[in-house]
Amino acid sequence: MKALTYHGAGLHRWEEVPAPAVRDPQDAVVRVDAVTICGTDLHILEGDVPEVAAGRILGHEAVGTITEVGPGVRGFVRGDRVLVSCISSCGRCRNCRAGAYGQCSGGGGWVLGHLIDGTQAEYVRVPFADTSLYRLPDAVGDEQALMLADILPTSYEVGVRNGQVSPGDTVVIVGAGPIGLAAITTARLFTPSRIIVVDPAPARRDAAKAFGADAVLDLPEATPDTLCSLTTDGQGAHVAIEAVGVPESFELCTRLVRAGGHVANVGVHGRPATLHLEDLWIRDLTLTTGLVDTTSTPLLLDLLAEGRLGTEGLVTHRFGLDEMPTAYDVFSRAAETGALKVALFRT
Q: With 90 as the cut, is the pLDDT of residue 48 above it?
């Protein structure tokens, strides 16, 4: 089969590799029908995730059809149409039993495209199938479902839920890429009074408006005074969601949030950020980080199936699966191409 393999910083190939097979009783093999590329994959290619070994098949988001199940799989059969989540869960360890699937200590967590071969291939082996796959209703299309593999649960859990967005809040989101736009969508479930988005790219600011942002700011405009002028009470944001993964965006969030507010970091960082405790110690701030657990995936899937959650506009470019190198090129040059999420489909 063909797959996208990693060969060190800046090096990847679409090449022939052995097809996966069931190794453990709880495994399933899934034919990949739709797959996408994540900003985290670009971080891997930049050398920011040294745990990824040379030769690893990248990717951790897919929709597909089960072609084989191990003898220990009870909830799925061949032919089932499923969502392959970015997080695998053994379901048995202490962390999984507490719902912290991203911190699974039994061989799961973020393993696909990281510690084991991932989804950017014609077929993928999924460990712990019963607790790591989600059966898809007929009402949900492949492209819609693909947005639930990572960006929607990540923005919801690590940004909106960890940030404790509440009705009437002012929410500032720094970064209008796919995660930032998904944060707009999921924050609106909690009826904040204002959602303000900061991004240097005009096209992404326009996208933020289309997704429901009440105001958008270019980076030079994103000052505490400007933000206070956009709030009903003249203070900063109740919640600041960092959706980029660079030091400057994190530090900006700490300046835009009000006293007693919450900074929810979602972005994947490859460089240190400065924590200005000399300024922040007195402001009663809460700072959270996190890896998605995907506990919200069933809820979000229900909302999607009922038409209560929209994914329209997140995918801007579509390709055939064998166009993976072109899709990577387009996605990696998002500032030039206007790419948000790219989707690749089996043809």
A: no
Contact 149, 60 (CB under 8 A): yes
* Torsion sign (Cα): 136, 139, 145, 147: negative
Who's near 273: CB < 8 A, 6+ residues apart? 247, 250, 251
**177: which 2 tokens?**
């890429």
Q: What is the pLDDT of residue 65?
A: 98
> Residue type at 132?
S
From the number of C-beta atoms within 10 Å of its C-beta (0-12, 13-18, 19+), residue 258 rates as buried
CA neighbours within 13 Å on the CB side: how many for 256?
33
Fill in the DSSP letter of residue 137.
P
Q: Yes or no: say if 163 and 262 are a contact pair by the CB < 8 Å rule.
A: yes
pLDDT tens-place string over residues 87-134:
999 999 999 999 999 999 999 999 999 999 999 999 999 999 999 999
pLDDT tens for each residue of 276-323: 999 999 999 999 999 999 999 999 999 999 999 989 999 999 999 999
**Residues whose CB falls within 8 Å of the CB of residue 113, separated by 6 or more in sequence, listed in order:** 41, 44, 52, 56, 57, 58, 59, 60, 119, 120
| 51/48 Cα distance (integer angstroms) | 9
What is the structure's pLDDT at 232?
Answer: 87
Q: How many CA atoms lie within 13 A of 215 on its CB side?
A: 18
